[in-house]
Amino acid sequence: MRISELSRRSGVPAATIKYYRREGLLPEGRALNPTTVEYDEEHLQRLRLIRSLIQLGGLSVARTREVLEAVDRPLDAFETLGVVHHALPVPSAETEDPTGKRGEDGEDGTGPDSAAGEVAPAGAAARVEALIENMGWQISDASPHRPALAESLAALSRLGTDYTADDLVPYARLATSTADLDFAQFDGIEDRIALAERAVVLTVLFEPVVRLLRRLAQEDANHRRHQRRAGGRGEQPTE
Amino acid sequence: MRISELSRRSGVPAATIKYYRREGLLPEGRALNPTTVEYDEEHLQRLRLIRSLIQLGGLSVARTREVLEAVDRPLDAFETLGVVHHALPVPSAETEDPTGKRGEDGEDGTGPDSAAGEVAPAGAAARVEALIENMGWQISDASPHRPALAESLAALSRLGTDYTADDLVPYARLATSTADLDFAQFDGIEDRIALAERAVVLTVLFEPVVRLLRRLAQEDANHRRHQRRAGGRGEQPTE
User: In this predicted complex, what is the ipTM?
Assistant: First the structure.
């Protein structure tokens, strides 16, 4: 197909496709003549993966190149998913501001000597290990999610809210059920690039869906809780 | 207590406390004499709420003032939680980059004519409404989470992955269970400021914990899946 069709089918503007090609993320097409380049289905699939990594995963071009190299190495699905999973941004209590800056007015808001960046108390890391052991989870030592969870628990502790490993077990059980739903989405996908793309989708793009479902469920729980207290005289459903 | 003790007990630097006071977020203390100001437990509690809203919630000073005014208005817990909940940043597929910019090198990465910002197909909003109806959820028309979820589903569609309302129901059920765990944490809290603070903690600060538990559960699910395929000859637990 020509770049115009590649752009139409991928939803990626031609100028962006050329940019990815210049950056070496997308293989060259087959030159039919000095002015016409032919692309195939593999280019289309690779393009969708590049786009999801950069635009939705927030990965840099360099980080994206690393992931693509891993995808192209002869790894099994397990390893491919691991590489993609670990390359993606890690949730953190310090990065919950979607504007990327503290405050719409650009004001840091925390004033001088902000406490942000305090180190996690040793207790937090110990609680993470206890939770992983309680759950019988198999987590690699290199997982970026261990220290990230410890930092989040430490931030909660600094706010005066301590969660023990036992407190987190019910949440961890629900997380396991969610992950099982996630992996059911991999069934039948054998192609490594398709698996990597789905891993990105599930880890990055589907994450806000899961978070928003939680927010909506919280809204609903708040309504139900209110009605219970008000003896059923609560706000009516808007649907 | 003096500002030094207020700082010690809140974990907020004295300079930051003075900054919040200058911004009118924290009420003046009681002046014992021209050089000494006395603060009480209410100042401490308010300070912790301000800090969680600004530093962890990523709210601007102006937005924080709005929330504090809502907390001080004679609202019931239901309304207070609603105000806090809606004031907080909304998860979005466009803001998953924790660095706040696309790419560590500052390079946008999507090149010119980025497709970011495409409008959500009407179908996405319809799927959100269908899901809310299927779940019997009570969601206010003003909820920022409806359009945010529609946009996330639209982003998935643009990537060639369509989720129907039925596809999302199992996830929504787990989200309901998670929300029930969340609200169990409100039991016994009657004080509005304490409720608002807990709402911030649960919505903002506990969110990365839930997300990280999902990541860890995905890692474990990947290990289990790998071992099943490999007939049990998989990586051994690291714990």
Answer: 0.74
